[in-house]
Design brief:
By secondary structure, the chain is of the alpha+beta class. The protein contains six helices and five strands; from the N terminus they run ααβαββααββα. It has a five-stranded mixed β-sheet. Strand 4 and strand 5 form a beta hairpin. Helix 3 runs antiparallel to helix 5. The longest helix is centred in the first third of the chain and has 21 residues, at about 35-55. Mean pLDDT is about 80; it is low at about 170-174.
Length: about 170
């Protein structure tokens, strides 16, 4: 998380937003290809930056961006949740329902192709993880990227993961 945030330093430095990073000591490693999950996390952080930037233009809103990680028990074992939260406008339910659709965007087409969340979801699932998005009435948006904890002696193997993914996500949209 720290390296991803550091790469986005320029965009973060120019914002009038409270930025919080919460990563507990002793967090286990996740099963992933180098750079795969960090790309997905970067896309989530960029979306949060864009939304928080809108919120920062309304000083009374108390704009913030929080990135945190926590270990949890998932449906098939231990996972790490990478959680990106931001202030901004509430996302309407019909927009949330389409958020992962390819080429869907609520922003200007000249800057956004509408692929960020689609790619992030694909990367999460490639690693046998998942991605969820929720928004509350008060404008808090939370994206949760989940990835399985590494098992001793098990290496990342894309074909094994793709086979397992096909069984786990038989109707997946990508």
């Amino acid at each position: 998380i720290g390296r991803t945030m550091a790469r986005m330093g320029e965009a973060l430095a120019s914002m009038e937003v409270s930025i919080q990073l919460e990563v507990p000591d002793g967090l286990p490693e996740v099963q992933c290809r180098s750079g795969g999950l960090s790309r997905a996390l970067a896309k989530l952080i960029q979306n949060a930056i864009d939304a928080a930037a809108v919120s920062s233009r309304q000083p009374e809103a108390g704009a913030f961006l929080r990135v945190r990680a926590e270990q949890a028990v998932g449906p098939v074992g231990d996972v790490v949740h990478f959680i990106v939260e931001n202030s901004g406008e509430t996302i309407a339910p019909e927009t949330l329902a389409r958020a992962f659709d390819p080429f869907f965007t609520t922003r200007s087409r000249d800057r956004h192709a509408g692929l960020g969340l689609t790619v992030a979801l694909g990367l999460a699932r490639e690693h046998l993880g998942d991605l969820s998005l929720e928004s509350s009435e008060d404008g808090l948006t939370r994206a949760t990227l989940s990835a399985p904890v590494s098992s001793p002696g098990v290496e990342y193997c894309p074909q094994v993961l793709r086979d397992a993914e096909a069984e786990r996500w038989p109707k997946h949209r990508l």
